[in-house]
Amino acid sequence: MSTPDELIQLTLNGDPHSLAAGATAADLVEELGLSGRRIAVEINEEIVPKSQLADTRLANGDHVEVVHAIGGG
Amino acid sequence: MTSLTDTPFTVAGRDFSSRLLVGTGKYKDFDETGAAIAQSGAEIVTFAVRRTNLGQDTEAPNLLDVISPKRYTLLPNTAGCYTAKDAVRTCRLARELLDGHNLVKLEVLGDDTTLYPNVVETLQAAETLLADGFDVMVYTSDDPIVARELEAMGCCAIMPLGSLIGSGHGIQNPHNVRLIIEQSQVPVLVDAGIGTASDAAMAMELGCDGVLLNSAIAHARDPLRMANAMKLAVQAGRDAFLSGRMPRRQTADPSSPFAGRING
């Protein structure tokens, strides 16, 4: 059982990122200052719907992508 | 004066009055993006999906604040994807981003020099996306056989290139585009290569259902004025197509009557 002091290592948008063990995807979005922003989250190549962010616990080694809309043709 | 009517542009069961679709890339800033797109009269607007820049100003305006999903029908693209797998992931991210909206522009590219479509990967991606419930408008080569395959699979619009993306070389093979138009039951749009208003008019005169462009407006010296030019060109080309142009002749045919000439 992990204690709150422990950290897990993610790959977030291609870069290493540390996060408290036990954190959820919603916690990560909050930490990034992106709560309420129009984003989409993918963990290990699977979409995590907005409605499930708070129920999705992150694990060591997870690959997380957080994307948004930008100009393009 | 009688009013001239046209059928709506219908794609994936949705009706639109504008036959010009525009992208949101390459603009100076969001103000210019919003103004040019409003001026173009476009109702369907494409955008790209990219990693959020972490650690930057999270209060900065977002593209979707400028191009509101309430006002426009948004068409996420898979630009930058070189494999079917990446294109499918991108479409699923876009669907999540837009709360379940399932209309996408599929493009799977072959290399970064030509940005030419990789039709093998495009066909694979289309199959997966269609099975997953997406409405797929597909960017492809101007090969009529590939276009026929994509339509048979269930793509809701076929979008052959006029010439290379961002090249501004216009429609290099109008004969192929016409072949695709004549065989297709779904809308055909020229997507890529449009450089100026006459290119857009030419696409519509060939019988395209619409035109999708980005750089021609964004990279014009005056994007707002070019947005207006494109709006008018698409309308003019559409009307010319519906009118049925006069036959071409090898010799002259005077517009003024021969009878009654003073030298007769």
Please write out the topology.
The complex is a heterodimer of chains A (about 70) and B (about 260).
Chain A: E1 7-12, E2 15-20, H1 25-31, E3 40-43, E4 46-48, E5 63-71
Parallel strand pairs in A: 1-5
Antiparallel strand pairs in A: 1-2, 3-4, 3-5
Chain B: E1 9-11, E2 14-16, E3 20-22, H1 30-40, E4 44-51, H2 63-66, E5 73-76, H3 84-97, E6 103-106, H4 119-131, E7 135-140, H5 144-153, E8 157-160, H6 174-183, E9 189-191, H7 197-206, E10 210-213, H8 215-218, H9 223-243
Helix pairs in contact in B: 1-9, 3-4, 4-5, 5-6, 7-9
The main sheet of chain A comes to: 5 strands, mixed
- Give the oligomeric state: heterodimer
The Rg value of chain B, from CA coordinates, equals: 20 Å
Order of helices and strands of chain B: EEEHEHEHEHEHEHEHEHH
Determine the CATH topology of chain B. TIM Barrel
Task: Give the tally of β-strands of chain A.
Answer: 5
Q: Give the CATH level 1 class of chain B.
A: Alpha Beta
CATH superfamily of chain A: Beta-grasp domain
Which structural category do the helix and sheet elements of chain A fall into? mainly beta
CATH class of chain A: Alpha Beta
Total beta-strand segments of chain B: 10
Q: What gap, in angstroms, lies between the N and C termini of chain A?
A: 48 Å
Instruction: Assign the structural class of chain B, choosing from mainly alpha, mainly beta, alpha/beta, alpha+beta, or little secondary structure.
Output: alpha/beta
Helical residue percent of chain A?
under 10%
Domains counted in the coordinates of chain B: how many?
1
Q: Name the helicity range of chain B.
A: 25-40%
Largest interface in this structure: A-B, 26 and 36 residues
Euclidean distance between termini CA atoms of chain B = 38 Å
Over all CA atoms, what is the radius of gyration of chain A?
12 Å
Number of helices of chain B: 9
Active site (chain B): 105 (schiff-base intermediate with dxp)
Pathway (chain B): Cofactor biosynthesis; thiamine diphosphate biosynthesis
Binding site for 1-deoxy-D-xylulose 5-phosphate (chain B): 166, 192-193, 214-215
Pfam family, one (chain B): ThiG
